[in-house]
Amino acid sequence: MTIFIIDKNINTIKSINKVLKDFSEFNCIGTSSNIEKATNVILKQNPDLIFLNIDAECEKPFEFVQELKVFKNSIPLFVAISSSKENAYAAIKSGFIDILINPLTELEIRKTVLKLQNNFATQFRNNICLKSYKDYQYLKTDEILFLKADNNTTDFYMGDGTVVNAYKTLKTFEDILPNNFYRIHKSYIINKNFISRIQYGKSTCTIKKNVQDVPFTKTYIKAIDSINASLLAYSYVSLK
């Protein structure tokens, strides 16, 4: 995760960088106290996170964050730095994920970085690694259609038509896959994002990019109802 700091206080910058050194996944790519120069860096280098002093470095910090959306489809995460606790509510309401109150302490910075670490893991971990001895195979989770149990092994059905075998049980993957994957059968886990049809009468799901339907059972009907409710929420409904 790349980080940029907008603040003129040298001690603040040193304190943040001191904590960041303890986390290998974070890389500070620069600092600036000039909002124009900072904006140019943001648009050019696309940092994942920005620490922004909302007291002095930017006349209208919350408008600054909103204006970035005009130029970028995906803007960075923001952490506010301020000497006023009253600014905390306004910062969170404006989309900042956290606020640090001056004078900064190492403990409070570390707490914020640990929050970021959790957020980073959730947002950017989109591969699953199939390890067998010294063989490491990586699959993108957003390309997995469904998983099928085959005794004590698991077959991954991919969007490109390939089937990848893993020497682990289905339960192993049920515990680590993202929340768009649902167990709908003792032998199947399905990626909700590829479902094009749910037939309760036949107890089957139709999968995009796949010729065969995937069955579900009454044991997992709550999962099917949850998938259906989620898909309905983002669909126009036409009754035949």
Major sheet summary line: 5 strands, parallel
Q: Mean pLDDT across all residues, rounded?
A: 88
Low-confidence stretches: none
Q: What does the overall shape look like?
A: elongated
CATH superfamily of the largest domain: Response regulator
Number of helices, where a helix is a run of at least 4 consecutive DSSP H or I residues:
7
Keywords: Activator, Cytoplasm, Two-component regulatory system
Function: Required for high-level post-exponential phase expression of a series of secreted proteins.
GO molecular function: DNA binding; phosphorelay response regulator activity
Domain Response regulatory: 2-117
Describe this structure in words.
Residues 128-230 form the HTH LytTR-type domain. Required for high-level post-exponential phase expression of a series of secreted proteins. One of its GO terms (molecular function) is phosphorelay response regulator activity. This protein is an alpha/beta fold and 240 residues long. The protein folds into two domains: 2-124, 3-Layer(aba) Sandwich (Rossmann fold), CATH 3.40.50; 127-232, LytTr DNA-binding domain (OB fold (Dihydrolipoamide Acetyltransferase, E2P)). 32% of the residues lie in helices and 31% in strands. It has seven helices and 15 strands. The chain has a five-stranded parallel sheet, with helices on both faces. A five-stranded antiparallel sheet has the order 10-9-8-12-11. The longest helix is centred in the middle third of the chain and has 19 residues, at 106-124. The radius of gyration is 23 Å and the shape is elongated. The termini are far apart. The relative contact order is 0.09.
